[in-house]
Amino acid sequence: MNSIIKRNQREKRFKFYGILAVATAILLLVILLFKIFSTGISAFNQTYIGVKIQIQVNSDISNLDPRRELRRNIRTMFPDVKTRSEKKNLYSLFSNGAYYEFEEMLDNYNGEKIDGYYYFLASDDLDMYFKGTVKRKGNSAGRIQPSQMKYIDMFENMNLIELKYNKYLLGSSDSREPELAGILGAIYGSFYAILIAFITSFPLGILTAIYLEKLASKNRFSDIIETNINNLAAVPSIVFGLLGLAIFLNFFDLPRSASLVGGLTLGLMTLPTIVIASRSAIKSVPPSIEEASIGLGSSKIQTIFNFSLPLAMPGILTGTIIGMARAIGETAPLLMIGMVAFIVDIPSGPMDAATALPVQIYLWQDSPERAFVERTSAAIMVLLLFLFLLNITAVYLRKKLEKKW
Amino acid sequence: MTKELKISAKNLNVFYGKKQALFDINLNIYANEVTSLIGPSGCGKSTLIKCFNRMNDLVDICKYSGQIMIDGQDINHSSTDPVSLRTRIGMVFQKPNPFPKSLYDNIAYGPRLHGMFNTKEDLDEIVISSLKKAGLFNEVKDRLFESGTGLSGGQQQRLCIARALAVNPEIILMDEPCSALDPIATAKIEELIEELKEKYTIVIVTHSMQQAARVSNRTAYMHMGELIETGLTKNIFSNPKHAKTQDYITGRIG
Ligand SMILES: Nc1ncnc2c1ncn2[C@@H]1O[C@H](COP(=O)(O)OP(=O)(O)OP(=O)(O)O)[C@@H](O)[C@H]1O
Ligand SMILES: [Mg+2]
User: Using CB atoms within 10 A of its CB, is residue A56 exposed (0-12), middle (13-18) or buried (19+)?
Assistant: First the structure.
């Protein structure tokens, strides 16, 4: 009687420990996500300043210097600004991007009269102040001097400072200026790298698994291979970076910093994971099905491709996607093969120099500008989103393939 | 009346690694008869039956010596292709093992593999006639495109028989085909065996004395990897020559 009560108590206690462990894990995850989201979400909006732009009907704008023209328009709003340093302070509220935006506006000019307030990108210092990240102390805020604050207050009084969607973050590549920096280049780089990693490691991994599981005779040699593959899965990723450096850059002389090399390196890194997952998936295919197939006169290879492989496919895909998800978040091997460079162009193919999302995150968190903090978190959010999508795909494929059988 | 010799094993020894599973087996199996293999668990019945279609090739550690002749041809000879050998020999396993495909695709698998038809109608015909031969057609005729794994155990086993019949084999090997089935399903399969022996040579492994007595023309009794006694079923059961056989069929060992 007593022992039953004790046993029940013990079970309750263990259940409680279990719940406690799960709750701790969830809590930590929530804290992490909350921190990232609360820091990163503001990067999706960016501060813009309204400027009154006036262009007459059918003006000849072909010789217009957009920089000088925008500045002229800004100055018109503040007739009192006279001295060089006053002008400099006023202009410094705008980002260099403002001039590009104005240039674009001029490019689209169709001869109609323009007269009204148009919004142009503000500098990162103003952005940080306006978002409240940098607090105002008297007449200065962070790197904003009282002489600049004067103009900020004027714009604010006119209600001309606004937050708008930050098209640079997801629409452009890296930049020295935080307000112009984006992750599109890194997304492309990651995309090419993952694509190449998948193309190389998926077929290679499956074929290796099939060979080891179904075709190789069991002897010392296959034992050694098996042990080594298991060990490879545990090798630190930076070692794969060194391997990629030695093979793809030094030996094959492929272009440095290219996502091709990054992809091949990540492919090498993922290969053992895929082999191990595929082997266990192939191993768990019921032997009775394979016997039936052999018994009907299928050859070994036919049996593998008609039954073993399709039946193992959900497991193989899950393993592959987990491997890919790991590869997508991997930084260290990419550092070794030079994908860490500051790259302003969006790569147009896997041979172009590129960087990858996690490397971009690494670069940004190392940047001194305050505005890169929120961008780092925003980039992490995008990376997490990709991981989430990959996992959803894994679940979906699994369900779908399992249903087919 | 003299029967045509279909399979004959001569001085067959089989090893799994160092362990010898069959000792010097000499056995004749005749065409259009049912031969049953009986004997206690682990005596090598499955091993023997798998030698006939070289299923043991799949087991790395399995080695043979001796000869197995089918229609006078040595099946272990290097000129015999195990894949084409297996198309002449259908096999039904202890546990029903339908493919996780539709009923139709289950049966069509073999014919498709060997290109045994010209038109879609031919294939339909093969599928339907195989199902009819296996006595399953009426039960499943309106769910041919549903999964084969959705059938009852007995239906699944008859599906496996139909699947084996679809490639038009000469010999059918059955390894305890009824061990997972209830008496009614068993009776159906036994009836089926009765019909099939008109056209096929059947070797069946069974643990049920009654079943061996009911369905087989000849019986071979094995013990610890040796073939103890073989002969017409009625003689073996009524008048076993060997004491071990006597013990086994009267239930004293096994
Ligand atoms: N793949 C294998 N590897 C090693 N030994 C095996 C293998 N298959 C069978 N054996 C051994 O060979 C012997 C004969 O086995 P077999 O399966 O032929 O027996 P069986 O007569 O079919 O028994 P049961 O009636 O239980 O099915 C057994 O001792 C078994 O342990
Ligand atoms: Mg057996």
Answer: exposed
Amino acid identity of residue A402, one-letter, is E
Suggest the residue from A218, A288, A296, A309 to mutate for an interface test with chain B (most B CBs closer than 10 A): A296
Query: What is the number of structural domains in chain A?
Result: 3
Q: Number of Cβ pairs closer than 8 Å across A and B?
A: 59
Whether A82 and A17 share a structural domain: no
Say which amino acid occupies A15: K
> How many Å lie between the centroid of ligand 2 and the Cα of residue B42?
7
> In angstroms, rounded to a whole number, what is the distance separating the alpha carbons of residues A180 and A173?
8
A312 and A245 assigned to the same domain:
yes
Strand pairing of B171-175 and B201-205? Answer: parallel
Residues A299 and A338 grouped into a single domain: yes
- Contact assignment for B83 to A299 by CB distance below 8 Å: yes
In angstroms, what is the span from residue B172 Cα to ligand 1's centroid? 20
A127 in the same domain as A69 = yes
Residue B91 with chain A: CB contacts under 8 Å: 291, 295
pLDDT-based confidence at residue B13 (cuts at 50, 70, 90) = very high
* A175 domain residue, yes or no: no
- Give B68's contacts (C-beta < 8 A, 6+ positions apart): B7, B8, B9, B10, B12, B51, B52, B74, B75, B76
Q: Within 10 Å of residue B65's Cβ, how many Cβ atoms?
A: 12
Per-residue pLDDT of chain A (405 residues; tens, 9 = 90+): 678 899 999 999 999 999 999 999 999 999 999 999 999 999 999 999 999 988 888 878 778 888 988 999 998 888 888 888 888 988 999 999 999 999 998 888 888 888 889 999 999 999 999 998 888 888 888 888 888 888 889 898 988 999 999 999 998 888 888 999 999 999 999 999 999 999 999 999 999 999 999 888 878 888 898 899 989 888 999 999 999 999 999 999 888 888 999 999 999 999 999 999 999 999 999 999 999 999 998 988 999 999 999 999 999 998 999 899 999 999 899 988 888 888 888 888 888 888 999 999 999 998 888 899 999 999 999 999 999 998 898 888 888 887 655
Do residue A346 and residue A239 come from a single domain?
Answer: yes
Q: Do A58 and A18 lie in a common domain?
A: no
Structural domain span for residue A265 = 184-401
Residues A388 and A251 grouped into a single domain: yes
> Is residue A252 located within the same domain as residue A389?
yes
**Of B164, B202, B9, nearest in space to A294 by CA:** B164
Cβ pair B242, B217 in contact under 8 A: no
| CA atoms of A282 and A310, how far apart (whole Å) | 9
Which residue has the CA at smallest separation from atom 17 of ligand 1? B46
- Contacts with A295 from chain B: Cβ below 8 Å: 53, 55, 86, 90-91, 93, 164
The reply to whether A179 falls in a domain is: no
Within a domain: residue A172?
no
Last residue of a domain, one of A167, A193, A210: A167
Q: Which residue of A has its CA nearest to B162?
A: A296
Does A356 fall in a domain?
A: yes
B54 to chain A: which residues are within 8 Å by CB?
none
Considering every ligand atom, which ligand is closest to the CA of B16? 1
Residue with CA at minimum distance from ligand 1 atom 2:
B16
